[in-house]
Structure formats: structure tokens, C-alpha cells
């Protein structure tokens, strides 16, 4: 099932196949077909440690084609876990592809949310909750306060794999063919899930599209707490308008480096704006003090130990500081996902008062996070040799203005990937990283976000057309495209050619950073 196989001459007649169907993504796949059996008959399919809860044939509407909806539950004996999986199979015009969707935050995904876009594009699709419902990190604890390692493993890596195995088997049974492509598509936690699949289960997917990936999980969440800790220790909750003023000043300073002033730090590598230059500046919430500036610099620099040694990265100077350092009304409010990590995974204390965490304890908790959870959820293993050898392709991107997941952590991962895989030229044969300047978490911000990463991966997997750059788009509130910009492959950046509209991607080229 891993790789595209030559279809037998009689397959079309046997299955009533439509040999070539163009998907909504603009790509085509051989083996497209109508089902070989009824939706109801899938209820009798026997899969290991799996209960098929329901099979429902859903009629087409004006917005979604007809499909077979399957709900199933996978368990891992002797544990009493329940990994819920939703599978949706087009009743006609299947494009010969399977696409799994990822989750976000502490949510593994939604097995009940119909993937309308994937179905419209002709994909068979699936999603899973990875063993727990909701977006809270509380699933990590049993009722007696001990760690639930089965659910942690389900969320960390096992649930997505079990979804892939079960869903692909149902695709095979429904359409009567083992010849189809398998893809994973996700952002944030979903991006992490995709890269975890490449690391742990290299034959599950032919292609992986990952955005804003929350790799380096064990360092990301302690780092999200860093700014809040520093403000508490300094007795200075820097108001949001001062944080915003610092971000805007950094953008103004570094913006012109790419050859155009457009409110975006395109040439992100060289931006080293110092917040201390703002001391004495008047804002709507008061004058920027030396303490304010020092705290803002610490948010940009990221966590350091007692000797000033690097622990992890901070936010980019073009990213909003307020999401992780929420100081509305002069009171600190830590980022919820990071705080859940401290409560449920590290201290195992749901009632934790974060204000009791001292600097020394923070350093110990940071170390605990890495040591205790590295093997189960870190998702930063740079050895993708098995995925490469299986013929897999992965493309991932990250916005420099991401206010939640530290952009330079993804840069760090790709650099280590290149080192482990034999250098840049060898790595880009199967893995490519793209940088979206000015784009927030999975989208938003002032920059242009990838318009169709999945299609780029499909073209790479099925036609050998490796993406050299991605098409980026920025839309207004009505969905109208107001700017296009090339999203360049790391380490290049988009540089203005010096003529033409700066809202048109054709007037930029991907070049080396100064």
C-alpha cells in the first residue's frame, strides 16, 4: 500500500473504476473508483483490537459529495484506553488518495468533524482524538493523581499510527484496491503529529504536509512560561500596549532589510533590535522603563539558566508578545497549554498556583520536562533515514511571527535534520522546510501563508516535482486575496526585485539572506 503500484489491466472493469479523476487540489491520481462494496458491509470487517461502532451512508449535499462515515474505537490491551477514529470514504469520484488530519494543542483531533474540503477534493479521510476528548491536558493524570502513561503515549505518537493502520485498511476494503496514496495534513500539534509519523512509523504515509510544527515539545512548553516567570520575579507585568510598541518598533527597524518596506520582516535572520532603545518612549499605557525593556529582551532571547546558558529560543521580534505574556489589566495570565503542561505533566498538581514557582524550581522543571518526556513526545529526532528510504516526502513550514510556537526551534530541527541526513542537498531530496515571514500560528498576521501545501506534497510524491518555493497568499476579512508572496525554501528569503507591485509574488525572488 506504501507506494503506487501498476494497476492490473482488468482492475477498472472489476471495480467500475474511473481511471483518472482530477482532485480539487489540481492533481490527479490513477485508481480512482466507485466503491467495491456497500458502506453497511464495512460493519462486518474485523480489525485487531478494534470495534467498528457505526457505518453510515450519507447522501450528497450542495457542498459535500456523498460518503460513507465510519466510527471506530481502537484499544491497546491490557490498557482500558479508547482511541476514537472517524473515517470518511467518498461514495464516488474517489481520487485514489487517503488524507489523515491532525489536531491542535492538547486535542489529538476530531473524529466526528466531517472533513468537507478533503471530501470535495475526492480524498478518503480520517481523524482521531488520540485517546481523549477535549483540549485540556488533564488526560495525563489518573483519578489518583498518577500519570496515565497509556494516554500520554496515545497522544504522543500511538493514536495517529493506529488511525492510519485502521483507516487505510477500510479504504482498501471499501474500494477493493491496495493501490492508493496516503497523506497526512496538520498544523501545530498536527504538524508535530506528522513529523512524529515520519520519525516512528516511516511507512504510514507517502507524503506529509506539516505547518507550524510543535516539535521540541518538551522544551516549547516550559519556554512558553519564561516571560511570565520573569515578569513575576521582577514584579513588573509589562502592559500589552508596551509589548505591542516593542514589536512594532522591531518591525520598523528590520522591515527594509528585504528591499521593501511593507510591515513584514522578510529578511528575518539579521533582525537584532534591542528593546533598550525604547527606554523613555511614551505609550498609551505609560513610559517604557529600563525594567520593561529588559523583560522584553528576555522574551526575545528565550530561557537561560542561572549561568546565562541557553535553554531554548524566544519569540521572533516580529511576533506578538501578548499571547504568551498576557498582562491585560496589569496581571499575568500564563498561556493555557503551557500551564497545563506544568500542572498535569510535571507537578501532577491540577491545583498548582504558578506564582509559587521560583526561578530555581523552574530550571528543575525545565530539566524534568526534557528528561521525563523526551522519549514519548519530544518529536525532535532528526534521523528520518527510514522515512527517506521508504520513499516518503515531507514539506513543512513555519511563520516567523508565530506567537505560540518558537519559530527558531523549527529552524534548529531542520538544521539538525540536515546534519543527520548528510547535508542540505541530500536532505532536500525528501524533506523541505519553508519560511513564511510575518505569518502567525498556522496563518494570520501581516504576511502571506501557504495557499496549498498539500497539493505541493502530492505533486512531489506522485510526479517527482519537488517544491522549490510555495505560493503564499494573504486574504482580507471577505476572503479576497490582497497579496501574494513566494514562501522560500530555507535558508533563502524573498527579496524584492526593485520594480512592480509589492503585493505581487512575481516581483520577488528567493535569495540568500544578507
UniProtKB/TrEMBL annotation:
<protein>
    <submittedName>
        <fullName>Tannase</fullName>
    </submittedName>
</protein>
<keyword id="KW-0732">Signal</keyword>
<keyword id="KW-0719">Serine esterase</keyword>
<keyword id="KW-0378">Hydrolase</keyword>
<dbReference type="InterPro" id="IPR006311">
    <property type="entry name" value="TAT_signal"/>
</dbReference>
<keyword id="KW-1015">Disulfide bond</keyword>
<comment type="similarity">
    <text>Belongs to the tannase family.</text>
</comment>
<dbReference type="GO" id="GO:0052689">
    <property type="term" value="F:carboxylic ester hydrolase activity"/>
</dbReference>
<dbReference type="Pfam" id="PF07519">
    <property type="entry name" value="Tannase"/>
</dbReference>
<dbReference type="GO" id="GO:0046872">
    <property type="term" value="F:metal ion binding"/>
</dbReference>
<keyword id="KW-0106">Calcium</keyword>
<keyword id="KW-0479">Metal-binding</keyword>
<dbReference type="InterPro" id="IPR029058">
    <property type="entry name" value="AB_hydrolase_fold"/>
</dbReference>
<dbReference type="InterPro" id="IPR011118">
    <property type="entry name" value="Tannase/feruloyl_esterase"/>
</dbReference>
Amino acid at each position: 500500500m506504501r507506494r503506487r503500484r501498476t494497476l492490473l489491466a482488468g482492475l477498472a472493469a472489476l471495480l467500475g473504476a474511473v481511471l483518472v479523476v482530477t482532485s480539487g487540489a489540481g492533481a490527479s491520481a490513477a485508481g480512482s473508483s466507485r466503491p467495491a462494496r456497500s458502506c453497511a458491509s464495512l460493519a462486518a470487517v474485523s480489525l485487531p483490537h478494534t470495534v467498528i461502532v457505526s457505518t453510515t451512508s450519507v447522501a450528497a449535499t450542495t457542498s459535500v459529495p456523498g460518503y460513507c462515515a465510519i466510527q471506530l474505537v481502537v484499544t491497546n490491551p491490557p490498557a482500558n484506553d479508547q482511541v476514537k477514529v472517524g473515517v470518511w470514504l467518498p461514495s464516488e469520484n474517489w481520487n485514489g488518495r487517503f488524507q489523515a488530519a491532525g489536531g491542535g494543542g492538547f486535542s489529538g483531533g476530531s473524529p466526528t468533524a466531517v472533513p468537507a474540503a478533503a471530501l470535495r477534493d475526492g480524498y478518503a479521510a480520517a481523524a482521531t482524538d488520540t485517546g481523549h476528548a477535549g483540549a485540556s491536558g488533564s488526560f495525563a493524570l489518573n483519578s489518583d493523581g498518577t500519570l496515565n502513561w497509556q494516554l500520554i503515549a496515545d497522544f504522543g505518537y500511538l493514536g495517529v499510527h493506529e488511525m492510519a493502520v485502521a483507516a487505510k485498511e477500510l479504504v482498501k476494503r471499501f474500494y477493493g484496491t491496495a493501490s492508493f496514496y496516503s497523506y497526512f495534513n496538520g498544523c501545530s500539534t498536527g504538524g508535530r503529529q506528522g513529523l512524529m509519523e515520519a520519525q516512528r512509523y516511516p511507512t504510514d504515509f507517502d507524503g506529509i504536509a506539516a505547518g507550524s510544527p510543535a516539535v521540541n515539545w518538551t522544551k516549547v512548553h516550559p519556554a512558553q512560561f519564561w516571560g511570565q516567570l520573569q515578569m513575576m520575579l521582577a514584579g513588573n507585568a509589562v502592559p500589552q500596549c508596551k509589548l505591542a510598541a516593542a514589536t512594532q518598533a522591531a518591525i520598523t527597524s528590520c522591515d527594509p532589510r528585504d528591499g521593501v518596506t511593507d510591515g513584514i520582516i522578510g529578511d528575518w535572520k539579521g533582525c537584532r533590535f534591542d528593546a533598550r532603545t525604547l527606554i523613555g518612549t511614551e505609550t498609551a499605557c505609560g513610559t517604557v522603563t529600563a525594567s520593561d525593556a529588559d523583560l522584553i529582551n528576555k522574551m526575545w532571547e528565550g530561557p537561560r539558566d542561572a549561568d546565562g546558558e541557553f535553554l531554548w529560543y524566544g519569540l521572533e521580534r516580529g511576533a506578538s508578545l501578548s499571547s504568551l505574556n498576557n498582562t491585560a489589566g496589569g496581571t499575568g495570565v500564563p498561556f493555557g497549554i503551557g500551564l497545563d503542561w506544568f500542572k498535569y505533566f510535571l507537578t501532577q498538581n491540577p491545583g498548582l498556583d504558578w506564582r509559587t514557582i521560583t526561578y530555581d524550581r523552574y530550571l528543575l522543571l525545565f530539566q524534568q520536562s526534557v528528561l521525563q518526556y523526551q522519549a514519548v513526545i519530544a518529536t525532535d529526532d532528526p534521523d528520518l533515514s527510514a522515512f527517506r528510504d521508504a520513499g516518503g516526502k515531507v514539506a513543512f513550514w513555519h511563520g516567523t511571527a508565530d506567537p505560540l510556537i518558537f519559530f527558531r526551534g523549527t529552524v534548529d530541527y531542520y538544521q539538525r535534520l540536515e546534519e543527520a541526513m548528510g547535508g542540505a542537498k541530500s536532505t532536500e531530496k525528501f524533506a523541505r522546510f519553508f519560511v513564511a515571514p510575518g505569518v502567525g500560528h498556522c496563518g494570520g498576521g501581516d504576511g502571506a501563508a501557504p495557499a496549498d501545501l498539500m497539493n505541493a506534497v502530492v505533486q512531489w510524491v506522485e510526479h517527482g516535482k519537488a517544491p522549490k518555493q510555495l505560493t503564499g497568499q494573504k486574504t482580507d476579512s471577505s476572503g479576497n486575496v490582497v497579496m501574494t508572496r513566494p514562501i522560500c525554501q530555507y535558508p533563502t528569503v524573498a527579496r524584492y526585485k526593485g520594480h512592480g507591485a509589492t503585493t505581487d509574488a512575481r516581483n520577488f525572488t528567493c535569495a540568500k539572506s544578507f
